[in-house]
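Re: Re: token formats

Sure, here are both.
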Amino acid sequence: MKCKLFAAVLSCSLALCLFVGCAAPSEENNTGDNGGSIGNIAAPTDEITPGTEMYRGFTLDNVYHSDEGEIHYNVYFPQSYDGTAAYALFMTLPGYEGLYRFGAGANLRSEEFAFEAQNYIQDVIVLAPQLNDWGMTSARQTVALLNYFISHYNIDPSRIYANGFSGGGETLSLVMQLAPELFAAVLHVNSVWDGDLAPLVAARAPVYLVIGESDEYYGSARISATYREIVSLYRAEGLSDERIAEFVVLDIKDAAYFEAAGAPNQHGGGAYYAFDEEIMGWLFSHSKGYTRNTAIADVAGDPVFGDYGRLLFPVDDWYYSGDTLGTLSMTWYSHIDPDKTVEICNYLRSRAAAGDRVFYDIYTDEEKAADPSLNDTGLFFFKGDEGAPFAVTCAGGGWAYVAAMHDSFPHALELSKRGYNAFAIIYRPGCADGI
């Protein structure tokens, strides 16, 4: 395909999109929905059977009919939630006594994490699944339920938290093997770690490990060994101990801690951590999203993007300067909005973390192997309404590089907000025989 031919096709495509776009997409809120709600609670759908019993603000025994099986859960929505603003999400996984076999709401009646979380974040949806065990099936169901909420409600992807107590901690460790990139931070309470640690470390997911030194059920030796292994993995990646301390904390509580709390024993005393401001404050002090201070290299190399994260920025790095998103500067452009840069990167990251496709290759692996320069091409996708018209945005850059962060990503994001599907093309500038 010749460059001129491509330009002509692109112009025709844009014109067609604008023509088709005369039938505007839905005006409904496009940032999240209540799933057809009555108040804040989802009405019956093919996927959800809502509960009817209430307990301390929670709707009990909702059922998500997922591909992983039926998932029973309790949920709290603040009265202020209407889907227009993104809310934090906190998920609490109970110990043995909170499994579904002991009745709907048993987890809420035996632990206070779900209620105390509301004292730290007012704009928070609290999700309290009741699973059947603490193995991989329950972990997959937990991830499925979490992804359902992310895709059907307006959830702030930078503020997703979880705790797991006892058996729930084992489940949480497996969840962090399957989807660690979803969480801003997690609290692992009086338990052991069954999951693979490599995904946790690769995602840089912060975890707080807390247990009694003489926990009657697990002891503290195994989780201490897990902590040492996590530290070792981070050191192998070249992180300093100071930096590692941002990602993992080991807190071994002595007998005096539980005696002061009035706990009957150390293992059951884990329930008292819900009232510990230092522990709970650590959990909710984290946020997952990028900021102005996030290093450009960390965004380009974020595992959630696979090998295409580098294409977010000019391939030839001499066309841009700055080390962070807030200091990004590109040749010939003097009005780069750092807040828009952060918003774009967080949008793409949150969608990718939720399992949505945000990048499409233009060429096959065989074509790229034959011509390595084709690796520097692709289409970033900004999703709109299903079935809505689409547009393709093409950044400039003086025929020298692709200034997508200024010239096409902001436009594609705005189109998606209005319900249109938008693609931002990454091409080879100055090409003579193709994109």
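Second one below.
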Amino acid sequence: MDLNNLRNNYHKLINQMEKDNYDISSIDLIKNAINFIFSKPEDSWHSYDEIRTAYTNFENISNSYRAARNTAINKIMAFDQYEITPNNLPCREVLKKGAYYKLNKEFRLLIDEYSKVLDLETIAPKSKETYLYGAASVLYSFNQLGITCLNDIGESHILCLFGDNGVLKGENNNYCFRRFLKKIGISPITKNRILSLIPKTKDVERVKDYLSHEEVEAIKSAIRIEGKLSLRERAIAAVLYYTALRATDISNLKLTDIDWVNETIYIVQEKTEIPLELPLDPSYGNYIYRYITEERGYSEESFVFLKKARPYGKVPAPLITSHIMNLVYDAANVRMNPGDRRGTHIFRHHAVSSMLSNNINGAVISASLGHSSRSSLNPYLNSDFRHLKNCALSLEKYPMSRKA
């Protein structure tokens, strides 16, 4: 692995972060990571994945510090390989470009073609990004196996990636690659041959998780009590609970989206690009107001929720779904067992199941949550236990022993 570029230019990364007013702790994380990289002989490293694993694989560090180290390596890699400085850009956005730029020329041209095809479809930009990233990631995995054109893909390569023990097993990668093959202009023989080799995944309809009554009350209590959470965390949790907005839309919420006079919030959802107008209810509006006036302070940033460390950009959605919501669940002392689902989307599940149990019309629910289609409600119907009970068949006509 050639680290000469990083060795000769890493000071530019540090200087840019200082220029962008990053706080000292963030800059120190980068410096420490760079020192770690160069503390080993250069031939010790073969890839940034190897460096990332070595730098984060310490038993005596917390999960939050492990994540911070992971982010530091990602920023260094983005600078070293693509000359991209952080500039307040979420690292995940930088790295999403990575698979495409690492492709050989033929595969990159196929992704370019696929991008043009997707432009003609009526899909949300977020969906297009997901499809392109998924296809590029699969093609890059083939590149790593030594495959440089689709004609060279054989059964052994497919099983290596998509088999039971494959590195890309899972329905998302499978779906993205199948969709890509069907859309691009390649030989039908090659297309059908590869499609026939890809293992079919089972369509599993998972029952949506939901918040119990006790969990809801504990979370609402944690939001109300002073001192457990910062005003920012309380406001974000209140918005999530009372509006069921997606984390991306809370992250993108701007001061100008809030009409304090007419008591409404108007946004264009990032995922669907569908406008959504919500009533600014005091149940969460008061928390937003207190955060803006008491904790947020003056900033030229247009976003409502800002990071606590310099540069004070918007709170990125991944920070809301992970760190901030973990603080909320911990403060409420709920979902503390390993494997318990946390995050933000469970609040949307709760909102839908609550409205369904109260006989609210499906069209109203979809409009309230900003769904692009009524069919988006279908997965939630499995969690509507109140109405599912009405569908249960009586066993009175079927004699059973008392033991049963």
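Strands lie at 258-259, 264-268, 275-279. The chain is about 55% helix and 5% strand.
- S.
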